[in-house]
Specification:
The complex is a heterodimer of chains A (382) and B (297). Chain A has 382 residues and is α/β, with parallel strands linked by helices. Chain A has helices at residues 7-17, 32-44, 57-70, 80-95, 120-123, 138-155, 180-186, 210-242, 267-280, 298-304, 325-333, 357-369, and strands spanning 2-5, 22-25, 50-53, 74-79, 101-106, 131-134, 159-164, 173-176, 203-204, 249-252, 259-263, 285-290, 292-294, 310-315, 342-347, 378-379. Chain A contains 12 helices and 16 strands. In chain A, helix 2 (32-44) links the parallel strand 2 (22-25) and strand 3. In chain A, helix 1 crosses helix 2 and helix 3 packs parallel to helix 4. The longest helix of chain A is centred in the middle third of the chain and has 33 residues, at 210-242. Chain A is globular, with a radius of gyration of 21 Å. Chain B has 297 residues and is α/β, with parallel strands linked by helices. Helix content of chain B is 38%, strand content 14%. Chain B has an 8-stranded mixed beta sheet with strand order 2-1-3-4-6-5-7-8, with helices on both faces. In chain B, helix 1 (22-34) crosses helix 7 and helix 3 (71-84) runs parallel beside helix 5 (106-114). Chain B is globular, with a radius of gyration of 19 Å. Classes of the chains: A alpha/beta (382), B alpha/beta (297). The interface between A and B is large, with 41 and 43 residues. The complex binds iron/sulfur cluster (SF4). Residues 17-18, 21, 23, 46, 49, 126, 130-131, 205-208 of chain B line the site of iron/sulfur cluster (SF4). Residues 17-18, 21, 23, 46, 49, 126, 130-131, 205-208 of chain B line the site of iron/sulfur cluster.
Chain lengths: 382, 297
């Protein structure tokens, strides 16, 4: 069924369709509409389950982890300061191997205050052990939440679905809402092997020796690595059931591209338009969209960018003292590339500033004419 | 009816608490009264040390060693998940220390209590951060020595029971290990009430209180008899019941036995006595049925 939905409401629909019985949340702009919609459905009985209206995001995550380990599917949504407050529990969720799924509406981090799109909130949680997806629009956010449960519940790692503030969270678009039967077919009920067992008392989260901690982390790394394969498989299954698929990455007009742009999130949509314009003018520019950020799809990106001479990474985020975070990852991915491509880092759209097709075209043309490497990130200030 | 003390011991021997630890005695009594159909939450504190090091544990019920400030929302998450699964014969018990309750976990405890989550929350109060080596918490009594109050604690102990009462939760009670029957009866009562139950359990700590290891139960009794720690219940935030009439022993009898109060001056002892007497009067006022209620009953 098609409906006209905001990104936030698309996410809420996904959670309902996954029959998630336990939701714990705390309000924060611009995520609150997800929390409100799910509360409304819980109150009216449309959503069968319990909404825990906690006193903080930190407690919301604590409750999700605990409920997950009791064997029920859980969800929370947050943004910005909320995900920063959760930080401790994000590590805990991954360490407990709890397949919690969370939507994060990318909003800048204070100070100074603002409500605008910026990916630093979730990207600065990159080392917490969560699977991370970045979505381009509401449809993708809805579909990715459903896929995330299927992936997380196979590898026993939590998954985060990010959508940008306002550009996606509040923007209304026609969204295809899958049928309940389809989702039921696609997503089996949660069956967690490591849950509380009243008849076989165990002890969760013990104090361990250094060697055991190392072993444990190593096992978690192997599980995280396996996500790349599983994510592709789940995406294919999704495509078969729903007719839509996204991949971990997406290549747009890359085959003959002299310049490859790399984007994540909503800037991708704008970049698609920019590429069309550039191509019309005869400029061979292509695009690589990165959808899965953790685990970083290194091998897939190496293949997709094979032979490319110039790559421009556009980051709506900044690691102060370093640069754009997608750029860091991309440079690390290509370090052994025999082609030694020139990689240019552009910081654009920070704090929700507008990134128009013209801005992206300008970046592409600039890179086209560059011959020397530039180490430092270049700021787009228009 | 099987008395709680006849039920199996769910805190196995071989745990790592110090000799004479009141906290371990408290946990043992609580778990015994809870029974085996319990899922327990513990947080970083001496509870963790008592839990043991992998692959050993002394807990006889399924237990999670959660993070410091989230005993209540962790327990609430489990309780709600059990409700979703229709497993209403399992109780969820949260243990947190005074630091995890009075300080870092206060907001999350308040949040869970506001929602009246169906859990039994037991604050094991040894009156300082003992597991990190004796630092002041907001449960530390006036003038007590700790590693971070070398001159004695300049502030009074926070009244956690009044904070809990302000949530109008169905049941809160004080208890201490020197009155084991009272403690276990309160746990049994709490098990039969739905909503957030809070037990403020005073547990003497030989290491932190600077006391010999064989007097923890005696100190616990003295805390009650000197009115430092009266035994009472609060129902729905308004009905107060004093469970035991203390012998009104002078405060010195309690203080003199503890190294942490060794440096106290006469006037400080007098001040503590005044505070204790004043609190007792206030409690008696609250516990007294109002004349109006009496006229109607
Ligand atoms: S420090 Fe105190 S509370 Fe902790 S184990 Fe030792 S005696 Fe018990």
């Amino acid at each position: 069924m098609k409906d006209f939905l905001t990104g936030n409401h698309a996410v809420a629909h996904a959670v309902k369709l996954c029959r998630t019985p336990l939701i714990a949340a705390y309000p924060i702009t611009p995520q609150t509409a997800i929390y409100e919609k799910l509360s409304e459905w819980e109150a009216s009985g449309v959503l069968k389950g319990i909404m825990m209206r906690t006193e903080s995001e930190h407690s919301a995550m604590a409750s999700c982890i605990a409920a997950s380990l009791t064997g029920v599917r859980t969800f929370t949504a947050t943004s910005s300061q909320g995900i920063a407050l959760m930080h401790e529990m994000l590590h805990f969720a991954a360490g407990c191997r709890a397949p919690v799924v969370m939507a994060n509406v990318n909003r800048l981090l204070a100070a100074p205050w603002g409500f605008w799109a910026d990916q630093l909130d979730s990207l600065s949680q990159r080392d917490t052990g969560w699977i991370q997806f970045y979505c381009e629009n509401g449809q993708e956010a809805l579909d990715t939440v459903i896929q995330s449960y299927k992936i997380a519940e196979q590898v026993y790692l939590p998954a985060m679905v990010s959508l940008e503030a306002f550009f996606v969270s509040h923007f209304m678009e026609p969204v295809d809402i899958p049928e309940q039967e389809q989702v039921d077919r696609f997503l089996p009920p949660l069956d967690l092997p490591h849950k509380f067992d009243i008849d076989k008392p165990g002890f969760f989260v013990p104090v361990v020796s250094s060697e055991l901690y190392r072993k444990y982390k190593h096992m978690a790394q192997e599980s995280m690595d396996s996500v790349k394969e599983i994510a592709v498989k789940v995406d294919q299954e999704f495509k078969e059931e729903f007719g839509r698929g996204y991949g971990m990455i997406e290549s747009v007009a890359l085959e003959d591209a002299e310049v490859a742009l790399v984007t994540a999130g909503s800037i991708t949509s704008t970049a698609r338009l920019a590429i069309k314009n550039l191509r019309k003018q005869g400029n061979k520019v292509g695009l690589l969209k990165v959808r899965l950020f953790r685990p970083f799809p290194v091998e897939a990106i190496q293949v997709a960018l094979k032979g490319k001479k110039k790559i421009a990474i556009i980051d709506r985020n900044l690691s102060l003292g370093s640069g754009g975070i997608f750029c860091q990852e991309l440079r690390a991915t290509l370090i052994h590339s025999p082609d030694h491509p020139l990689t240019y880092s552009y910081i654009a759209g920070i704090g929700g500033t507008d990134v128009t097709p013209e801005v992206i075209q300008k970046i592409a043309m600039e890179v086209m004419s560059r011959t020397e490497p530039v180490d430092k990130p270049m700021w787009v200030m228009e | 009816m099987i008395q709680p003390e006849q039920q199996p011991n769910l805190l196995r021997s071989g745990h790592a608490a110090c000799a004479g630890c009141g906290l371990a005695i408290g946990m043992k009594l609580v778990l015994q009264a809870m029974g085996p159909r319990t899922i327990a939450v513990i947080v970083p504190s001496c509870e963790g040390a008592i839990g043991g090091v992998y692959p050993y544990t002394s807990y006889g019920v399924p237990t999670i060693h959660s993070a410091f400030e989230i005993a209540a929302p962790t327990a609430a998450g489990i309780a709600n998940a059990l409700k979703i699964q229709g497993r209403d014969d399992i109780q969820v018990l949260a243990f947190a220390g005074d630091g995890g309750t009075f300080d870092i976990g206060l907001a999350s405890l308040s949040g869970a209590t506001k929602n009246n989550e169906d859990i039994i929350y037991v604050c094991l109060d040894n009156e300082a951060y003992m597991n990190t080596g004796i630092q002041v918490s907001s449960a530390t009594p006036s003038y007590a020595w700790t590693g971070t109050t070398p001159e004695g604690n300049p502030r009074r102990k926070k009244n956690i029971m009044e904070i809990m009462a302000a949530h109008y939760n169905p049941y809160s009670a004080t208890a201490t290990i020197g009155f084991p029957r009272d403690l276990q009866q309160k746990i049994t009562k709490a098990k039969n009430i739905r909503g957030t139950k809070f037990i403020h359990l005073l547990v003497p700590c030989p290491t932190g209180w600077r006391t010999p290891s064989d007097i923890s139960p005696e100190l616990s009794i003295l805390a009650v008899e000197t009115k430092v720690f009266p035994l009472y219940e609060v129902e729905d935030g308004k009905r107060y019941t004093i469970n035991y009439e203390p012998r009104h022993l002078p405060i010195q009898e309690y203080l003199v036995k503890q190294g942490r109060f060794r440096h106290l001056k006469e006037e400080q002892i007098r001040k503590i006595q005044r505070d204790v007497d004043e609190e007792w009067e206030k409690l008696k006022q609250r516990a007294r049925p109002s004349p109006k209620t009496r006229a109607f009953s």
